[in-house]
Specification:
The structure holds 2 protein chains of 2 kinds. Chain A is mainly α. Helices cover 77% and strands 0% of the residues of chain A. In chain B, a hairpin with a 4-residue loop joins strand 9 and strand 10. The longest helix of chain B is centred in the last third of the chain and has 18 residues. Bound molecules: adenosine-5'-triphosphate and magnesium ion. Chain B: Keywords: ATP-binding, Nucleotide-binding, Transport.
């Protein structure tokens, strides 16, 4: 529906084009496709190529800025390594088995903590979003806990779960769970009430309405929420790996800091960024693949 | 009373109670917004016989949708009650199908799946379901769009799917809230005839809302005129036209006379 409307808007715009261009010039160039008045339109789609080029330019701007600062010796190389140095270290580190082990264990921790949070938070959020009673029961305490920084739980977690794997997973879980419940509940509340009522007039029971309307309707938004939350999970991972560990990307970053190897810190950050980007793309792909009706 | 006569009486009762007679008894509805109370519906009394086709016309905001939603069980009356075949309405159900004023198709289901939604809930086997959806796809002339998603349809097509979906569920009562408002003139005429066709075959009771006086006269056996403040009935007309409604009916002197009467009543009320 969104697309149909967009298409419609574009057609109207095109139809309005010649009139707006008006005057003798438009008559002379009657065969030429009239150009739009503005290239930058509110909410309107732009060509795929235009999007890609703009995105690449944005990366290049970042790189240029970095290059000027480091090659121009505006910042000491100890604090800001040059791009080629970081690239070099990047391939060096990825050539070692130890680094892949760090990546592996970090991915495991994020996946475990995030999956656990989703497993518990999604059903609770769905129920809280669907029934006002559940909302009243669940949301006020969650709102309260949400504002407690997950990092502040670290000492408590160490008491509860020691310093093993569970401690890391638990921190990521705590960081994601409460937010996720609230976000899923809010997603669920956005499901059109009209659709639920339509299902009732077609004979659905309350349970069937949840099954056949609320859950399918919320899925695309849910995927998006999970995608956002996964980014947070990576943040909590680094926090979790800053204390009392000897493996993982966060640990690699901490170790590099101790020896002032800023290039290695950069590599660690970039690797996490790439992993995040990768998982994000997977979610985006799944969204398009499973919800063609959006 | 012997067992046999009792059984027969029960059977007769259930048989009589199978065609969707609606009784609206003193229904009123008021909405609270903050401290003020707004009365949307006054004291509505209305009896609709089984298999009757009744249309309500009235100015915007007079409470037509509200009344329909109360009959559907989607909204609770503040006072009074509605019964269908003698059973009080306490909530929505499959016996009262509804075509909503806005678009309410399930966007994640294809046209066919939307139409089969009700039968599927009831556990109708797939082949039978296919037959039902084929039938209503044909009636609404949507066969070639069976596998499209709603977002790929025009507004009028969506509304046709919504009608097919309601009909495919075989309700006793069909509640229609301005179902043809978004259709172009030609499609609208076709859908009106198709609806009369279905109505004659399926023996459902229809309670229909429209702004279009022509449509009201062409379709119904009885027309009710509503006015606002609070929503109430201000006129009732039996449509004395042949039961078989052909397009020529629109030229019938009685048709034109009734049209003038309704128009003047509505105009008078709005002024
Ligand atoms: N949830 C609500 N809260 C407060 N007022 C409401 C609510 N729903 C409807 N109303 C009011 O009740 C009145 C009747 O509304 P209704 O939707 O039944 O009108 P209608 O006759 O169907 O109009 P239209 O022809 O424009 O669809 C309106 O004045 C409206 O503002
Ligand atoms: Mg209405």
């Amino acid at each position: 529906m969104m697309h149909a409307e967009k298409g419609h808007g574009a057609r109207q715009e095109a139809a309005a084009g010649p009139k707006a261009g008006g005057g003798p010039r438009a008559v002379a160039g009657a065969l030429r496709k009239p150009t739009r008045r503005h290239r930058i339109q509110i909410f309107e789609d732009i060509p795929k190529r235009g999007f890609a080029v703009t995105a690449i330019v944005s990366f290049l701007v970042m790189l240029a800025f970095w290059s000027i600062l480091s090659y121009g010796n505006m910042v000491s190389r100890v604090f800001l390594p040059t791009p080629d140095r970081v690239l070099h270290t990047f391939f060096d580190l990825l050539g070692t088995q130890a680094y892949w082990h760090h990546i592996g264990i970090s991915v495991f921790r994020v996946s475990a903590g995030f999956a656990l949070a989703c497993l518990l938070a999604i059903p609770i959020g769905l129920i809280a979003g669907t029934f006002r009673f559940a909302e009243a029961f669940v949301e006020p305490p969650m709102e309260f806990i949400r504002y407690m920084p997950a990092v502040a739980f670290i000492p408590l977690i160490m008491v509860w779960a020691g310093i093993g794997e569970w401690a890391k997973i638990l921190l990521i879980f705590i960081g994601c769970f409460f937010q996720l419940v609230l976000m899923v509940a809010s997603d669920t509340r956005q499901v059109s009430k009209d659709l639920v009522q339509a299902s009732f007039t077609l004979g659905a029971s309350r349970w069937q309405a949840v099954q056949t309307v609320v859950i399918p309707a919320v899925q695309p938004r849910l995927m998006n929420t999970m995608r956002l939350m996964l980014g947070w999970a990576w943040t909590y991972l680094v926090v979790a790996e800053l204390v009392a560990v000897n493996s993982g990307l966060g640990y690699a970053i901490m170790k590099a800091q101790r020896f002032l190897n800023t290039d290695q810190i950069f590599v660690g950050i970039i690797v996490i960024g790439l992993l995040g980007l990768f998982s994000d793309r997977i979610f985006a792909f799944l969204n398009r693949r499973f919800f063609p009706w959006v | 009373m012997t067992k046999e006569t009792l059984a027969r009486e029960i059977r007769m009762e259930t048989e009589a109670a199978g065609h969707g007679a609606i009784a609206i008894r003193g229904v009123g509805k008021s909405y609270r917004t903050g401290k003020t109370e707004f009365q949307a519906l006054g004291n509505i009394r209305l009896d609709i016989a089984a298999n009757e086709f009744v249309t309500i016309v009235g100015p915007s905001g007079c409470g037509k949708s509200t009344l329909l939603r109360i009959v559907a069980g989607l909204e609770e009356a503040s006072v009074g009650e509605v019964t269908v075949d003698g059973v009080a309405v306490v909530g929505p159900g499959a016996d009262r199908g509804m075509v909503f004023q806005g678009y309410t198709l399930f966007p994640w289901l294809t046209v066919r799946q939307n139409i089969e939604y009700g039968p599927k809930l009831k556990g109708v086997p797939i082949l039978e379901r296919r037959a039902v959806s084929n039938r209503y796809l044909r009636i609404t002339r949507l066969e070639s769009f069976a596998n499209r998603f709603p977002k790929q349809l025009s507004g009028g097509m969506k509304q046709r799917v919504a009608i097919a979906r309601a009909l495919a569920n075989g309700p006793k009562v069909l509640l229609m809230d301005e179902p043809f408002g978004a259709l172009d003139a030609q499609t609208k005429l076709e859908m009106q005839e198709a609806l009369l066709d279905v109505w004659a075959k399926e023996k459902t009771t229809v309670l229909f809302i429209t702004h279009d006086i022509d449509e009201a006269i062409f379709l119904s056996q009885r027309i009710l005129v509503m006015a606002a403040g609070p929503g109430r009935m201000i006129g009732e007309y039996q449509v004395a036209l042949p039961a078989e409604r052909t397009p020529e009916v629109r030229e019938h002197p009685d048709f034109l006379k009734l049209k003038r009467e309704l128009a003047s009543l509505l105009k008078h009320k709005e002024a």
